[in-house]
Amino acid sequence: MHCTALSPALSSPSPAAGHAVNMARLTLLLMAACFLLQALSAHAITRHYKFNVVMRNMTRLCSTKPILTVNGKFPGPTLYAREGDNVLVKVVNHVAHNVTIHWHGVRQIRTGWYDGPAYITQCPIQPGSSFLYNFTITGQRGTLLWHAHINWLRATIHGAIVILPKLGVPYPFPAPHKEAVIVLGEWWKEDTETVINQAMQLGVGPNISDSHTINGHPGPLSECASSQDGFKLSVENGKTYMLRIINAALNDDLFFKVAGHELTVVEVDAVYTKPFKTDTLLITPGQTTNVLVRANQGAGRYLLSVSPFMDAPVQVDNKTGTATLHYANTVSSSMASLTLVKPPPQNATHIVSKFTDSLRSLNSKEYPANVPQTVDHSLLLTVGVGVNPCPSCINGTRVVGTINNVTFIMPSTPILQAHYYNIPGVFTEDFPATPLHKFNYTGSGPKNLQTMNGTRVYRLPYNASVQVVLQDTGIISPESHPIHLHGFNFFVVGKGVGNYNPRTSPSTFNLIDPIERNTIGVPTGGWTAIRFRSDNPGVWFMHCHFEVHTSWGLKMAFVVDNGKRPSETLIPPPKDLPQC
């Protein structure tokens, strides 16, 4: 219906004035109803995307190699939607690798078949095949990301998800003049699949990356670069810009800075925050952060920097990726002075703590923080590494990842299919809720560093309130871990240094306005407590978002039962679900 087609009735002649007035009122009512229907339908449209997974040659750091891409782009295309939209993405695999795509942070309410982690919710999309992902953006607005979720393919198969508010709904902060997507990443000169495969065969850690990147480029200060290389952000003096920043790196927590400019944080992981100002962001792999930047400096160019954070004796890529912010009134961009920025020290724990302590949910009437005040299921999960025998490995052993001393073994049949069809022998429901062996978790660890192998899950009833304490361990070395939970947002109600104490630690919890996220960095030698409600039936992966740790087995899954109503029940699998 076109609402303007009704407007001529307002001026149509009539012998009876009263009749004309009634007709005019009726027409106005019809027009109002029509516009309302259009507005409502505009709030929930279906958006169609096609992702062709193809190989492309890319040159970085004076070296060219073929990489896996979506639609030939690195980073891949940005997926735009509004809150409430239905999104259809047809993924076509034109390469020799198996592929899946994960929509990181999208709640996937009742649509776990489309979540994307290989062998957890689906078989991979095999070469020459395709799969139509079909999900609805429910109760979310902000920045998320999509990426491959099999092996290390997400090194180059990744991109942004921008979820705009519903039409007519403003941001809860001053609207920016313009917005820009900034994807942080890593670049290897080697093929990343070769890197991890060799490391797994030898039982040692993989080679670190050769550079950090901003929107796919190491930047103007990198090896072989000119002053004009890399991503450029153009701004006008006096205007405010919103940067949607995503950490798509495989293995590094990252600092982000803009020379000479303050950053106002307004959202993380597609959740609005109480705004606060800082000059340094800390973003772990899988996290997103939206900031406002006021262009209030003089003409010229200003450096953007991305550098690693690591406060443990673990080797990381120490290269700083760069880009430039350009003022529009700069006479010549090639000759303009470049204002540099000094990255934080690599082990700047105090900067990280200050940043994470500043994050609070907006907790307004429109965007409340519905924190579970009671707990039905309480879990204490140790996260770290162990050492298992490996006769073929270089040292006779291999380093493995572990949660509660269980190293997760990927099945050959997806767990969601096994759960839905009651297929026996794929997984067991005996994942321990607490460590089977108690020890000084943040100390040097027990003498026996061997772990148990298994495809173990933890079962939850529908709509239970769940508390999970994630406890780092000091086995081999303490280290921070960015833990990502699929299918849910959670509230970060507490964190601390050392071992979690169930008697005293809860007294420090924030149950009023804790930050709400889908990925959280567990501090080195410390713990983090999260709470969520198990209101999404299906199978939901939880793992470290350092890809090396996921490869080593630092992962597990929750099986969440259906509720009593159809609206609380996992939908049936799609007909084109890939087969193994």
Automatic annotation (TrEMBL):
It catalyses: 4 hydroquinone + O2 = 4 benzosemiquinone + 2 H2O. GO terms for molecular function: copper ion binding; hydroquinone:oxygen oxidoreductase activity. Residues 1-44 form the signal peptide. InterPro entries: Cu-oxidase-like_N, Cu-oxidase_2nd, Cu-oxidase_C, Cu-oxidase_fam, Cu_oxidase_CS, Cu_oxidase_Cu_BS, Cupredoxin, CuRO_1_LCC. The keyword RNA-binding does not apply. Keywords: Apoplast, Copper, Lignin degradation, Metal-binding, Oxidoreductase, Repeat, Secreted, Signal. Its EC number is 1.10.3.2. It is an enzyme of class 1 (oxidoreductase). It holds the Pfam family Cu-oxidase_2. It is found in: Secreted, Extracellular space, Apoplast. Its cofactor is Cu cation. One of its GO terms (biological process) is lignin catabolic process. GO terms for cellular component: apoplast. Its main location: secreted. PANTHER family: LACCASE-4, MULTI-COPPER OXIDASE. Belongs to the multicopper oxidase family. Lignin degradation and detoxification of lignin-derived products. NCBIfam families: laccase. This is Laccase. It comes from Oryza meridionalis. The lineage of its organism: Eukaryota, Viridiplantae, Streptophyta, Embryophyta, Tracheophyta.
